[in-house]
Design brief:
By secondary structure, the chain is mainly α. About 75% of the residues lie in helices and about 5% in strands. The chain is built from 15 helices and two strands. A two-stranded antiparallel ribbon has the order 1-2. Strand 1 and strand 2 form a beta hairpin.
Length: about 350
């Protein structure tokens, strides 16, 4: 077996062997590593939870106004970042074949996901809405097998099922109802919106993974937020001007917002921007199934907010469910880290 190549000096005296298998493979930098991806998706989970908490407070602001303000604010912050870093958003878009299709799919399902989530968080307790949305990893695992040809494995599949068991334990009061709390049509419509967000979010994870090595993550966010700002703001204008009984035109609605609501919209935009940047980059670096599971960590922020602000306390069944779900997620993180090192 040939282990290397022989080299002779000019006088033919010294023979030197350089085994090819001893050459070390280049190690990626920390900013391209698996560990950095896990750090980013953890930050994304925290900021998404903060954004959802702000949305649940803003019950007096129309859903269309919240979604519109969120996309406009995130687009402005993304555009400023791209200008500072001198990222050519137009040339990056047409550099690789199929990039435009990925952007369109990501934009449509991203806007749908956020709109459904906003409606869900306004129509039901934020902790319960977050738990339903936490079913996204199941859809991500199915879509990864179909579109990314990723093998799930027995142990990750078991951990996902354990995590879902925790989700069902947490949502048990949602199915049975609580004493002294009536569940109306608006509540169950919000439940359907939360399920719709879980499905849309799964599609987004797959598209973001396929965009790796094709598009810069800020380019993806730029076109996505631009699409959302234009479409949602246009629909908001049409709705407020054409439908009777919705109050004043949009520009007067914005003008009439109190300072508290303006502060909430600013926080939703800021948290949404940070969450989008960290999510998009992390999914490009790690498995979409793993990133979607860690992304479920926003349930901690949502549940904490639900206790402190809304005074809705989880029962003991929900406490067990949270423990089971987070334990399975942490176990899957360690399992992926060990396999990644090997």
């Amino acid at each position: 077996m040939k282990l290397g190549h022989w080299e002779e000096d000019t006088e033919g005296v010294v023979e030197e062997m350089t085994p090819l298998f001893l050459k070390p493979a280049p190690r990626p930098s920390f900013w391209e590593s698996h560990r950095w991806g896990i750090t980013l998706i953890t930050i994304s989970a925290l900021t998404y939870g903060m954004s959802a908490s702000c949305v649940s407070i803003a019950k007096d602001i129309p859903t269309a106004v919240i979604v519109s303000a969120r996309f406009v604010g995130a687009f402005v912050l993304t555009a400023i970042t791209c200008l500072i870093r001198r990222i050519p958003v137009r040339s990056e878009l047409v550099r690789e074949e199929g990039s435009v299709s990925l952007i369109i799919i990501r934009s449509i399902f991203g806007v749908t996901s956020f709109a459904c989530g906003t409606y869900a968080f306004q129509g039901m307790p934020v902790g319960e809405a977050t738990v339903i949305v936490s079913m996204a990893p199941v859809f991500v695992a199915c879509f990864s097998s179909c579109f990314l040809r990723e093998r799930l494995g027995v142990i990750p599949a078991i951990l996902i099922l354990v995590s879902l068991t925790g989700v069902f334990l947490i949502t048990d009061p949602l199915v049975l109802g609580r004493a002294g709390r009536s569940l109306g049509v608006f509540y169950f419509t919000a439940v359907g919106a939360a399920v719709g967000q879980a499905l849309s979010k799964a599609v987004v994870f797959i598209v973001l993974k396929k965009s790796y090595n094709r598009l810069h993550y800020l380019v993806v966010i730029f076109w996505y937020t631009l699409f959302g700002a234009v479409t949602v703001t246009s629909l908001t204008l049409i709705t407020f001007f054409s439908v009777r009984g919705l109050g004043q035109p949009t520009y007067r609605v914005y003008h009439a917002l109190p300072s508290r609501d303006w502060a909430l919209l600013a926080l939703i935009s800021l948290f949404g921007f940070v969450a989008q940047v960290t999510l998009t980059r992390s999914v490009q670096l790690i498995s979409p199934v793993l990133s979607s599971l860690i992304r479920n960590g926003d349930i901690l922020v949502a549940m904490l907010f639900q206790v402190l602000y809304a005074k809705i306390y989880p029962c003991w069944i929900q406490g067990i469910g949270i423990t089971v779900m987070l334990g399975a997620t942490v176990a899957l993180v360690f399992y992926n880290n060990r396999n990644h090192r090997h």
